[in-house]
Design brief:
By secondary structure, the chain is an alpha/beta fold. It has 4 helices and 6 strands. The chain has a single domain, classed as Rossmann fold (3-Layer(aba) Sandwich). Strand 2, helix 2 and strand 3 form a beta-alpha-beta unit. Helix 1 packs parallel to helix 2 and helix 3 packs across helix 4.
């Protein structure tokens, strides 16, 4: 299983240029992570973009879903990165992976995993939510999603 997670609501750059999760964002992300855990999400690896808001989101899922999971910042998860970078990294991957990232790259990555070959195509993705995918031959299929 792959779980794509859009980072929680962050403070504006005028408040803090590092853009950490807001208090509302932290609470919403904790609820989302708890809901994912209730659905049995237990990733073996948790990847994030390295940006503070994505790392904080990933940490909340890490604690709620599997504190023993490998935790790392990965290339290919920045807001404007090509979905091909992450799709190629996921090819042949057998572990359950949670990916915390940004828009629009998550929407384009979801489209790519669902079989869309045009890199600029994006699909509907829940703002500050998550989408669970399972392998289906050469592509992935969406099995559920949670709204924030």
């Amino acid at each position: 299983m792959i779980l794509l997670v859009h980072h929680g609501p962050a403070v504006g750059p005028e408040i803090d240029p590092m853009r950490p999760l807001s208090s509302v964002g932290r609470a919403a992300t904790e609820r989302l992570a708890a809901a994912a855990a209730r659905r049995g999400v237990q990733p073996e690896a948790i990847w994030h973009s390295g940006k503070l808001r994505a790392r904080q989101t990933a940490e909340l899922f890490w604690m709620a879903c599997n504190p023993l999971a490998l935790f790392s910042a990965e290339r290919g998860l920045q807001p404007d990165d090509s979905p091909r970078l992450m799709r190629d990294q996921l090819t042949g991957e057998t572990r359950s992976i949670l990916i915390a990232g940004h828009m629009p790259s998550l929407s384009r990555l979801l489209a790519s995993l669902l079989g869309e070959r045009e890199e600029s195509v994006s699909v509907d993705f829940p703002l500050h939510g998550c989408v669970a995918l399972e392998p289906d031959g050469d592509v992935w299929k969406e099995v559920w999603r949670l709204e924030a």
